[in-house]
Write a structure and sequence with these properties.
Layout lengths: L6 E8 L8 E8 L4 E5 L6 H9 L6 E6 L2 E2 L5 H11 E4 L11 H11 L1 H7 L3 H11 L5 H5 L7 H13 L5 E5 L7 H18 L2 E6 L10 E4 H4 L1 H4 L2
Parallel strand pairs: 3-8, 3-9, 6-7, 7-8
Antiparallel strand pairs: 1-2, 1-4, 4-5
Helix pairs in contact: 3-4, 3-5, 3-7, 7-8
Bound molecules: adenosine-5'-triphosphate (ATP).
Keywords: ATP-binding, Nucleotide-binding, Transport
Organism: Henriciella mobilis
GO cellular component, one term: plasma membrane
């Protein structure tokens, strides 16, 4: 089954209520292990597309297959399960839980997914610490601090460790670099792409900042694949 794409989209149509068509995508594939940069200006529909891929949103028509499973045929609860079990998601604002410690934040996906918990091994906290250490966060004092006390760059690394725990084969990241200066941003993307390569995960990274494209295997402009915007 591993030759099925990480993401396969066919004849996708999506519009927000009382709004004109936003996405009309005839075909789009992300290969297993591929690292793709999807760019487009603000408001072009990148986050909406990620929401569809993550199964948080449903298209009006068309199919979205993720890691060989047809999301569009699934009930909401099954889409939630697929996302929890098989996707690592990094949000624009990281969505770290302020009242949990750094290590607890990283372990969080394993609370929602038995599959991720099993894949992460018996010593969950140890695995969280191992991932954090690989991302340069190993200082015990720092790990004990509330996650809100960390710098933006450190919070990003926590968000990456959380996305990676349990080895999901699809990582999706929604412009997680907008708060960083150019050097920190480049370091962050290098870290993310290295970690994706290390675990063999496919990576879909969206941003309006085209200068990031060189870090990825392939770069696609949303306007190239989206007929709704092309004719708007
Ligand atoms: N929950 C929502 N309800 C209605 N319309 C929405 C909703 N979320 C987004 N939209 C609209 O859909 C369009 C695309 O928004 P989206 O956030 O997907 O774009 P984006 O390319 O990710 O933008 P940005 O780079 O600013 O994050 C915008 O016109 C936006 O107003």
């Amino acid at each position: 089954m591993t030759d099925t794409p990480a993401i396969k989209i066919r004849d996708l149509d999506f519009a927000w209520p009382q709004s004109p068509p936003l996405l009309d995508i005839a075909g789009f594939d992300l290969a297993r292990g591929e690292k793709l940069f999807l760019r487009g200006p603000s408001g072009s529909g990148k986050s909406t597309l990620l929401g569809l891929v993550a199964g948080v949103l449903e298209p009006q028509s068309g199919t979205i297959e993720v890691l060989g499973e047809n999301m569009t045929g699934l009930a909401g609860s099954k889409r939630d399960r697929l996302r929890a079990d098989r996707m690592g998601v990094i949000f624009q604002m990281f969505n770290l839980v302020p009242y949990l410690s750094v290590v607890q934040n990283v372990m969080l996906p394993c609370r929602f997914s038995a599959a991720r918990r099993k894949a992460a091994g018996d010593d969950l906290a140890g695995e969280a610490r191992r991932l954090l250490a690989r991302l340069g966060l190993s200082d015990e004092k720092l790990l004990a601090r509330p996650v809100t006390d960390l710098s933006v760059g450190q919070q990003q690394r926590v968000a990456v460790a959380r996305a990676l725990i349990g080895g999901p084969q699809l990582l999706i990241a929604d412009e997680p670099t907008s708060a960083l200066d150019a050097d920190a941003r480049d370091r962050f993307i290098e870290l993310l792409t290295e970690e994706a390569s290390g675990s063999g995960a496919a990576l879909l990274f969206v941003s309006h900042d085209g200068s990031l494209a060189s870090h990825f295997d392939r770069s696609v402009d949303l306007a190239e694949i989206n007929r709704a915007r092309a004719t708007a």
